[in-house]
Amino acid sequence: MIRVLLAEDQAMVRGALSALLGLEGDIEVLGAVADGESAWRELQRLQPDVLVTDIEMPGLTGLELADRIQRQGLPIKVVIVTTFARAGFLRRALDAGVAGYLLKDAPADTLADALRRVCRGERAIDPLLALEAWSEPDPLNERERQVLRLAGDGLSAGDIAARLQLSQGTVRNYLSEAIGKLGVSNRIEASRLARQKGWL
């Protein structure tokens, strides 16, 4: 029996995924939560075989959950089910140890099949997205990504510096580097482009 925890912030999608997987004789849905922090608590409590998660959720994102699972060495596979058909997200997911990455518009039976595959130690990645993922590498490093994400949220250099415990000069340097790498003229354009590419 494949034991699954669902993490999805949209109630209708969460209910549909739970009902869909509940029809499978070899899959048991242990729980379904609406945000990343609840997912983290339930992961530790329930110890499922697989976490099926969206990327964007309140609290922790699906990618942050996958990264925590990987860093803590938990024996839990992660399958992301998302609307984000962006190569940058897939690359970051793979770096975080994600075993499956599916799009929400995939055929319904794809998810159950993906869960079986990842439990056998295989990967289940949308094939067209996998090809695209390696065509355009992410130019940002992790610190540039953090600074750019906060700048895109409207924080000033001073606010970002305080949040990340850096000097304002260092924050400006990271922003300048990111703007240069992305070939745009300011931090707003840099943030927008990086989000479109799935790098933030």
From TrEMBL:
On this chain, the residues bearing 4-aspartylphosphate are 54
Biological process terms in GO annotation: phosphorelay signal transduction system; regulation of DNA-templated transcription
Q: Which UniProt keywords apply?
A: DNA-binding, Phosphoprotein
Segment forming the signal sequence: none
Q: What single Pfam family name could you report for this chain, choosing any that match?
A: Response_reg
HTH luxR-type domain span: 133-198
Which superkingdom does the taxonomy of this entry point to?
Answer: Bacteria
The Response regulatory domain is annotated at 3-119
Q: Which GO terms describe its molecular function?
A: DNA binding
Q: What is this protein called?
A: DNA-binding response regulator
